[in-house]
Amino acid sequence: MERILYDYFRSSAAYRVRIALNLKGVDVKRIVVNILPGIDEQNNAQYRQLNPQGRVPYYTEDEFRLGQSPAILEYLEEQYPVPALLPEGAREKAYVRQLSSIIACDIHPLNNLCVLEYLRNELGADNKAVEKWYAHWIQEGFKALEKMLTANHKSGRFCFGDKPTFADICLVPQLFNARRFEVPLDAFPAIVKIGAECAKLPAFQAAAPEALGKD
Ligand SMILES: N[C@@H](CCC(=O)N[C@@H](CS)C(=O)NCC(=O)O)C(=O)O
Protein backbone atom coordinates (compact mmCIF):
# COMPACT_ATOMS: atom_id res chain seq x y z
CA MET A 1 0.00 0.00 0.00
CA GLU A 2 1.27 3.47 -0.80
CA ARG A 3 0.51 6.14 1.76
CA ILE A 4 0.97 9.78 0.75
CA LEU A 5 0.73 12.94 2.78
CA TYR A 6 0.30 16.12 0.76
CA ASP A 7 2.04 18.50 3.06
CA TYR A 8 3.63 21.89 3.58
CA PHE A 9 6.20 22.38 6.31
CA ARG A 10 4.55 25.45 7.86
CA SER A 11 0.95 24.27 7.55
CA SER A 12 -0.20 23.77 11.11
CA ALA A 13 -3.04 21.48 10.04
CA ALA A 14 -0.54 19.26 8.19
CA TYR A 15 1.84 19.48 11.17
CA ARG A 16 -0.91 17.82 13.28
CA VAL A 17 -1.05 14.89 10.90
CA ARG A 18 2.75 14.57 10.78
CA ILE A 19 2.86 14.32 14.58
CA ALA A 20 0.14 11.65 14.65
CA LEU A 21 1.85 9.62 11.91
CA ASN A 22 5.16 9.80 13.77
CA LEU A 23 3.61 8.83 17.11
CA LYS A 24 1.95 5.84 15.48
CA GLY A 25 5.02 4.93 13.44
CA VAL A 26 3.15 5.06 10.13
CA ASP A 27 5.44 5.68 7.16
CA VAL A 28 4.26 7.99 4.41
CA LYS A 29 5.67 9.51 1.30
CA ARG A 30 5.51 13.31 1.60
CA ILE A 31 4.51 15.36 -1.39
CA VAL A 32 5.02 19.07 -0.90
CA VAL A 33 2.28 21.45 -1.93
CA ASN A 34 3.79 24.91 -1.64
CA ILE A 35 1.02 27.17 -0.34
CA LEU A 36 3.23 30.24 -0.06
CA PRO A 37 1.31 33.28 -1.43
CA GLY A 38 2.48 33.86 -4.98
CA ILE A 39 3.32 30.17 -5.47
CA ASP A 40 -0.09 28.76 -4.48
CA GLU A 41 0.39 25.19 -5.63
CA GLN A 42 -2.80 24.31 -3.75
CA ASN A 43 -4.69 26.03 -6.58
CA ASN A 44 -3.03 24.08 -9.40
CA ALA A 45 -5.60 22.27 -11.53
CA GLN A 46 -3.85 18.95 -10.90
CA TYR A 47 -3.96 19.33 -7.11
CA ARG A 48 -7.54 20.66 -7.19
CA GLN A 49 -8.53 17.57 -9.12
CA LEU A 50 -7.19 15.44 -6.29
CA ASN A 51 -8.42 17.69 -3.49
CA PRO A 52 -11.25 19.99 -4.61
CA GLN A 53 -10.81 22.07 -1.47
CA GLY A 54 -7.25 22.98 -2.42
CA ARG A 55 -5.79 22.74 1.05
CA VAL A 56 -3.23 20.72 2.94
CA PRO A 57 -3.07 18.24 4.54
CA TYR A 58 -4.44 15.63 2.20
CA TYR A 59 -3.86 11.96 2.92
CA THR A 60 -4.15 9.01 0.60
CA GLU A 61 -3.78 5.25 0.92
CA ASP A 62 -3.82 3.96 -2.66
CA GLU A 63 -7.26 5.01 -3.93
CA PHE A 64 -8.54 6.07 -0.50
CA ARG A 65 -8.42 9.87 -0.15
CA LEU A 66 -9.04 12.11 2.81
CA GLY A 67 -8.80 15.80 3.61
CA GLN A 68 -9.33 17.72 6.86
CA SER A 69 -6.83 17.03 9.62
CA PRO A 70 -9.45 16.12 12.29
CA ALA A 71 -10.91 13.48 9.95
CA ILE A 72 -7.42 12.22 9.13
CA LEU A 73 -6.54 11.98 12.84
CA GLU A 74 -9.73 10.05 13.55
CA TYR A 75 -9.04 7.71 10.63
CA LEU A 76 -5.46 7.06 11.77
CA GLU A 77 -6.70 6.38 15.29
CA GLU A 78 -9.09 3.70 14.04
CA GLN A 79 -6.79 2.23 11.47
CA TYR A 80 -3.58 2.29 13.51
CA PRO A 81 -4.86 2.11 17.10
CA VAL A 82 -1.48 1.67 18.84
CA PRO A 83 -0.44 3.87 20.52
CA ALA A 84 -3.85 5.35 21.23
CA LEU A 85 -4.06 9.12 20.84
CA LEU A 86 -7.44 9.32 22.53
CA PRO A 87 -7.98 8.21 26.12
CA GLU A 88 -10.28 5.41 27.15
CA GLY A 89 -13.88 6.27 27.99
CA ALA A 90 -16.51 8.19 26.06
CA ARG A 91 -16.37 11.22 28.35
CA GLU A 92 -12.59 11.32 28.36
CA LYS A 93 -12.46 11.08 24.57
CA ALA A 94 -15.07 13.82 24.26
CA TYR A 95 -13.07 16.05 26.60
CA VAL A 96 -9.92 15.65 24.52
CA ARG A 97 -11.89 16.34 21.34
CA GLN A 98 -13.27 19.47 23.01
CA LEU A 99 -9.74 20.78 23.67
CA SER A 100 -8.69 19.90 20.13
CA SER A 101 -11.74 21.63 18.68
CA ILE A 102 -11.00 24.91 20.43
CA ILE A 103 -7.85 24.98 18.32
CA ALA A 104 -8.91 23.24 15.13
CA CYS A 105 -12.43 24.71 14.85
CA ASP A 106 -12.20 28.08 16.59
CA ILE A 107 -8.66 29.43 16.46
CA HIS A 108 -7.10 28.02 13.33
CA PRO A 109 -9.82 28.74 10.73
CA LEU A 110 -9.83 32.43 11.59
CA ASN A 111 -6.08 32.64 11.12
CA ASN A 112 -5.81 30.54 8.01
CA LEU A 113 -3.74 31.83 5.12
CA CYS A 114 -6.73 32.43 2.82
CA VAL A 115 -8.51 34.39 5.57
CA LEU A 116 -5.46 36.60 6.17
CA GLU A 117 -5.08 37.14 2.42
CA TYR A 118 -8.75 38.11 2.21
CA LEU A 119 -8.33 40.62 5.04
CA ARG A 120 -5.31 42.11 3.22
CA ASN A 121 -6.42 42.00 -0.38
CA GLU A 122 -10.20 42.36 -0.24
CA LEU A 123 -10.77 44.34 2.95
CA GLY A 124 -7.64 46.51 2.80
CA ALA A 125 -6.23 45.53 6.18
CA ASP A 126 -2.55 46.45 6.62
CA ASN A 127 0.04 44.17 8.25
CA LYS A 128 -0.52 45.72 11.68
CA ALA A 129 -4.25 45.05 11.53
CA VAL A 130 -3.71 41.49 10.30
CA GLU A 131 -1.21 40.81 13.10
CA LYS A 132 -3.72 42.17 15.64
CA TRP A 133 -6.43 39.91 14.24
CA TYR A 134 -4.08 36.92 14.33
CA ALA A 135 -2.99 37.48 17.94
CA HIS A 136 -6.54 38.18 19.08
CA TRP A 137 -7.95 34.82 17.99
CA ILE A 138 -5.03 32.86 19.37
CA GLN A 139 -5.33 34.63 22.71
CA GLU A 140 -9.10 34.16 22.89
CA GLY A 141 -8.74 30.42 22.36
CA PHE A 142 -5.68 30.07 24.58
CA LYS A 143 -7.45 31.87 27.46
CA ALA A 144 -10.12 29.19 27.48
CA LEU A 145 -7.62 26.37 27.05
CA GLU A 146 -5.37 27.66 29.82
CA LYS A 147 -8.34 27.76 32.21
CA MET A 148 -9.38 24.25 31.28
CA LEU A 149 -5.87 22.89 31.64
CA THR A 150 -5.45 24.38 35.11
CA ALA A 151 -8.97 24.24 36.56
CA ASN A 152 -9.34 20.48 36.64
CA HIS A 153 -7.12 17.54 37.38
CA LYS A 154 -7.28 16.10 33.92
CA SER A 155 -3.99 17.43 32.60
CA GLY A 156 -0.63 16.01 33.60
CA ARG A 157 2.54 16.07 31.55
CA PHE A 158 0.23 16.57 28.60
CA CYS A 159 -3.21 18.12 28.02
CA PHE A 160 -4.86 14.95 29.26
CA GLY A 161 -2.81 12.85 31.65
CA ASP A 162 0.69 11.74 30.89
CA LYS A 163 0.34 10.53 27.32
CA PRO A 164 0.02 12.69 24.22
CA THR A 165 -3.43 12.92 22.69
CA PHE A 166 -5.15 14.75 19.83
CA ALA A 167 -5.21 17.82 22.09
CA ASP A 168 -1.41 18.02 22.25
CA ILE A 169 -1.22 17.26 18.54
CA CYS A 170 -3.38 20.32 17.87
CA LEU A 171 -1.77 22.49 20.54
CA VAL A 172 1.86 22.22 19.44
CA PRO A 173 1.36 23.54 15.86
CA GLN A 174 -0.81 26.34 17.23
CA LEU A 175 1.96 27.26 19.68
CA PHE A 176 4.41 27.24 16.78
CA ASN A 177 2.19 29.72 14.94
CA ALA A 178 1.82 31.90 18.03
CA ARG A 179 5.60 32.12 18.41
CA ARG A 180 6.12 32.70 14.71
CA PHE A 181 3.81 35.71 14.87
CA GLU A 182 5.28 36.84 18.21
CA VAL A 183 2.03 36.51 20.13
CA PRO A 184 2.82 37.04 23.85
CA LEU A 185 2.42 33.79 25.78
CA ASP A 186 3.12 34.99 29.34
CA ALA A 187 -0.52 34.52 30.31
CA PHE A 188 -0.45 30.85 29.31
CA PRO A 189 2.10 29.02 31.50
CA ALA A 190 0.25 25.68 31.45
CA ILE A 191 0.09 25.71 27.65
CA VAL A 192 3.77 26.63 27.37
CA LYS A 193 4.73 23.89 29.85
CA ILE A 194 2.82 21.23 27.95
CA GLY A 195 4.39 22.46 24.71
CA ALA A 196 7.83 22.00 26.28
CA GLU A 197 6.94 18.43 27.33
CA CYS A 198 5.81 17.60 23.80
CA ALA A 199 9.01 19.07 22.40
CA LYS A 200 10.96 16.38 24.29
CA LEU A 201 9.37 13.61 22.21
CA PRO A 202 11.09 12.55 18.95
CA ALA A 203 7.71 12.23 17.17
CA PHE A 204 6.99 15.90 17.81
CA GLN A 205 10.56 16.94 17.01
CA ALA A 206 10.61 15.17 13.65
CA ALA A 207 7.26 16.73 12.65
CA ALA A 208 8.31 20.29 13.44
CA PRO A 209 8.69 22.76 10.55
CA GLU A 210 12.28 23.44 11.55
CA ALA A 211 13.08 19.72 11.22
CA LEU A 212 11.77 19.67 7.65
CA GLY A 213 13.52 22.80 6.47
CA LYS A 214 11.98 24.93 3.79
CA ASP A 215 10.20 22.54 1.47
N1 LIG B 1 -9.67 22.48 8.56
C1 LIG B 1 -8.61 22.10 7.69
C2 LIG B 1 -7.74 23.27 7.40
C3 LIG B 1 -6.77 23.01 6.28
C4 LIG B 1 -6.13 24.28 5.85
O1 LIG B 1 -6.78 25.30 5.77
N2 LIG B 1 -4.82 24.25 5.58
C5 LIG B 1 -4.14 25.45 5.22
C6 LIG B 1 -2.72 25.41 5.71
S1 LIG B 1 -2.65 25.29 7.46
C7 LIG B 1 -4.14 25.60 3.72
O2 LIG B 1 -3.98 24.65 3.00
N3 LIG B 1 -4.30 26.83 3.26
C8 LIG B 1 -4.26 27.12 1.87
C9 LIG B 1 -5.06 28.34 1.59
O3 LIG B 1 -5.54 28.96 2.54
O4 LIG B 1 -5.19 28.66 0.41
C10 LIG B 1 -7.78 20.98 8.33
O5 LIG B 1 -7.75 20.90 9.55
O6 LIG B 1 -7.18 20.18 7.60
Structural features, described:
The chain is α+β, with helices and mostly antiparallel strands. The chain has 2 domains: 3-83, Glutaredoxin, CATH 3.40.30; 90-205, Glutathione S-transferase Yfyf (Class Pi), Chain A, domain 2. The chain is 54% helix and 8% strand. The chain is built from 10 helices and 4 strands, in the order βαβαββαααααααα. The protein has helices at residues 12-24, 45-50, 69-79, 90-107, 113-121, 127-151, 166-180, 189-198, 202-207, 209-212, and strands at residues 3-7, 29-32, 58-61, 64-67. A 4-stranded mixed β-sheet has the order 2-1-3-4, covered by helices on one side. Strand 1, helix 1 (12-24) and strand 2 (29-32) form a beta-alpha-beta unit. The longest helix is centred in the middle third of the chain and has 25 residues, at 127-151. The chain is globular, with a radius of gyration of 17 Å. The model has no long low-confidence stretch (mean pLDDT 96). It binds glutathione (GSH). The site of glutathione has 15 residues, from helix 1, helix 3 and helix 5.
